[in-house]
């Protein structure tokens, strides 16, 4: 296909596709999805070889969030039967993190529900970072604490945080459709604060919330312009008891095309296969490794993931290798903070209202093990 050849050539040059080309990837017929995967896989291998970086989530504080993000099981008014607990102590969090590191994770992501941290919360997280790095000196630590106030990014950096995550989630045009308690620009500003403080920025999206193709292209190009080092691609986990419980429109082929589009637009960035991969990609998960060079190991914040042992077997069986500790994930030009070529597409259209399906509580397993429980974690 001429389109795919063009996209591969542009990707290898770190040049962005046009808006129409990105949309065309999403609109490729399902019968051609293997061609799309093969093409985007060439770009992935150019910058990351066959390495897969493992990341591990530790939910420091679960539930009872005052924000109303429609996709989230921890949101204000959520009726999802998730674990709810206040801050883990530093030693508890370090113990949870150690399980992920033992499973092969080289980055630990410390997450806490809420609008954003208080200064006391930053102190708590700083203590946790110190405890984790005392046990595992070479592990990367990424904090995800919500919207940052002035000076907090610098404090986290000084405490040893290597990265900060704050996702854009969806397009600017439709952000108000999924959240009313804060805005899209608040999220952009937090990512920029993390970058200004010298932390590696991590920012991604959630697909499957009823958005249009144009919205997906918009948010991915916005991420390219923001220039994070890592882009997590989440697929909506439709928790029963949340407003989006009936959103079950994703197919494995659709997920692969979304990942391929992200890879073409962000060719040299760590693209992370994140929440919802098991329930939406299902048996096609190994194909996604040809597009993403990073995955979350084990469980997520409030839902259970694939067994860690199964993840490792999947990576090996697909012909990939776990990225070892101490290895720099990003290609040399990005590790040296070299920017990608400039570009900037226009915004897209708002999604049309579509009828939603029934909730599928049978496919979403609420996390009952690991952090905040007496049971061992999945890693």
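Q: What amino acid sequence fits the structure above?
A:
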């Amino acid at each position: 296909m001429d389109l795919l050849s063009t996209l591969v050539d542009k990707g290898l040059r770190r040049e962005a596709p046009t808006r129409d080309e990105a949309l065309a990837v999403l609109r490729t017929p399902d019968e051609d999805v293997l061609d799309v995967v093969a093409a985007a896989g060439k770009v992935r291998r150019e910058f990351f070889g066959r390495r897969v970086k493992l990341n591990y989530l530790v939910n420091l504080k679960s539930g009872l969030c005052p924000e109303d993000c429609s996709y989230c099981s921890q949101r204000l008014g959520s009726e999802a039967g998730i674990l709810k607990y206040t801050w883990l102590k530093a030693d508890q969090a370090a113990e949870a993190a150690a399980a992920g590191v033992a499973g092969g994770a080289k980055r630990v992501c410390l997450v806490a529900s809420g609008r954003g941290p208080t200064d006391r919360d930053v102190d708590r997280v700083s203590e946790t970072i110190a405890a984790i790095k005392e046990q595992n000196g070479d592990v990367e630590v990424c904090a995800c604490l919500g919207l940052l106030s002035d000076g907090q990014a610098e404090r986290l950096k000084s405490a040893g945080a290597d990265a900060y995550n704050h996702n854009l989630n969806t397009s600017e045009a439709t952000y108000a459709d999924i959240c009313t308690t804060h805005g899209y620009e608040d999220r952009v500003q937090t990512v920029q604060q993390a970058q200004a403080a010298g932390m590696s920025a991590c920012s991604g999206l959630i697909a499957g919330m009823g958005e249009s193709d144009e919205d997906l292209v918009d948010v991915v190009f916005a991420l390219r312009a923001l220039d994070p080092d890592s882009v997590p691609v989440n697929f909506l986990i439709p928790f029963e008891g949340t407003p989006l419980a009936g959103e079950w429109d994703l197919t494995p082929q659709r997920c692969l095309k979304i990942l391929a589009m992200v890879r073409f637009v962000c060719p040299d960035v760590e693209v992370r296969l994140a929440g919802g991969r098991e329930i939406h990609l299902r048996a096609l998960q190994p194909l996604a490794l040809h597009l993403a060079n990073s995955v979350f190991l084990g469980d997520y914040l409030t839902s259970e993931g694939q067994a860690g042992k199964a993840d490792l077997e999947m990576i090996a069986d697909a012909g990939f290798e776990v990225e070892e500790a101490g290895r720099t994930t990003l290609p040399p030009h990005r590790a040296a903070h070299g920017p990608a070529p400039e570009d900037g597409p226009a915004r897209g259209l708002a999604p049309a209202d579509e009828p939603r399906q029934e909730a599928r509580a049978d496919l979403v397993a609420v996390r009952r093990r690991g952090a905040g429980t007496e049971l061992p974690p999945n890693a």
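Q: And what stands out in the fold?
A: The longest strand covers residues 51-61.
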